[in-house]
Design a protein that fits this description.
By secondary structure, this protein is α/β, with parallel strands linked by helices. The protein folds into two domains: about 130 residues, Response regulator (Rossmann fold), CATH 3.40.50; about 110 residues, Arc Repressor Mutant, subunit A, CATH 1.10.10. Helices cover about 40% and strands about 20% of the residues. The protein contains eight helices and twelve strands. It has a five-stranded parallel beta sheet with strand order 2-1-3-4-5, with helices on both faces. A hairpin with a 3-residue loop joins strand 11 and strand 12. Helix 2 runs parallel beside helix 3 and helix 4 packs parallel to helix 8. The longest helix is centred in the middle third of the chain and has 20 residues.
Length: about 250
């Protein structure tokens, strides 16, 4: 009998043998599971209101290619509905463009098929830890402030909280995906330096194959909406023509 308080993991995978193996191992790790093999059915389940808070989904393991709605469509729909459940996207090793499209759609992490089960479990635990930190960071119980402030970065009346995946601006708080937070951390740690598109692909998103980098440009457009006073005239995240981008805290 499963523990009703255990985290609920939703697996969306249409390959029956892979799905059954993952479900078995997730349950062996102590998780509750729910499986969908069709994208349309998965989207309906994930967007349905949950009357019982105990049934809130802890994380989603989502295949890119599905019958019905594909994984990218599902992620976009969740983010547009302001559902920030962590998503671990399963991609095809031969399609690095899947990685970029998934990142742009709002996935938190990805894993290329075929993958090692232990790596999947480690990635999943990492996403759940971040969710726990974020849930603990309420106005009544703010996250602990580290002595070196390494998990916060402030500029232009904005604060990035890397531990809780939030960007706090004067008039709103934006929930960041793990990929967004990782890229912002990469930029802030290299303040004033040129960061090439190749660096972003290899050092942040772990994509080593040659691929179309337009997804990076589209991703930067989204980040500018978060951090710029006027995204059409960026002052903090500026383009270095033909190379990449540079972050300036005080332009």
């Amino acid at each position: 009998m499963s523990d009703s308080t255990a985290p609920l993991i939703v697996l969306v995978e249409d390959e029956e043998h892979l799905a059954q193996g993952l479900l078995y191992n997730l349950q062996a790790e102590g998780y509750r599971t729910h499986h969908e093999a069709d994208g349309d059915a998965a989207l309906a389940y994930l967007l349905a209101p949950k009357a019982d808070t105990a049934e809130n989904i802890a994380a989603i393991v989502l295949d890119c290619m599905l019958p019905g709605a594909d994984g990218f469509t599902i992620v976009r729909a969740l983010r547009e509905a302001q559902r920030y459940t962590p998503v671990l996207l399963l991609t095809a090793r031969s399609r690095p463009e899947d990685v970029l499209e998934g990142i742009e759609a709002g996935a938190d992490d990805y894993l290329a098929k075929p993958f090692d089960l232990n790596i999947l479990l480690v990635r999943l635990k990492s996403l759940l830890r971040r969710t726990a930190w974020q849930n603990a960071a309420t106005p009544e119980t703010p996250p602990p402030v580290l002595a070196d402030q390494s998990d916060e970065y402030s500029f232009n009346h904005r604060t990035i909280r890397f531990d809780t995946l939030e960007l706090i601006a004067p008039n709103r708080t934006t929930h960041l995906t793990l990929m967004e937070a990782d890229l912002l951390r990469h930029f802030t740690e290299r303040e004033g330096q040129i960061v090439s598109r190749k660096q972003i692909l290899e050092e942040v998103w772990r994509v080593h194959e040659d691929t179309d980098t337009r997804a990076i440009d589209n991703f930067i457009v989204r980040l500018r909406r978060y951090i710029e006073d006027d995204p059409s005239d960026p002052q903090h995240l500026v383009t270095v023509r033909g190379i990449g981008y540079r972050f300036l805290a005080n332009p």
